Predict the structure.
Amino acid sequence: MKKNVGTIDKVIRILIAVVVVVLYFTHVISGVLAIILLVLSAILVVTSLLSFCPIWLALGLSTKKKE
């Protein structure tokens, strides 16, 4: 599994996930939309922690700086 998620990409993904969680707990979003967004947020956090995004791989993209 080759790392393809850069630092800025990781920060953005985690910030989006935090915003969704805050919106959920403040009851701004609810129902099916909330569940879908929470699942997507969890995926964003996992891809951030692993530094690997399968969508970036499929598209041939990488936000990680070359070493």
Observations:
- The chain has one domain: 7-59.
- The CA atoms of residues 1 and 45 lie 17 Å apart.
- Helices lie at 7-25, 31-50, 54-59.
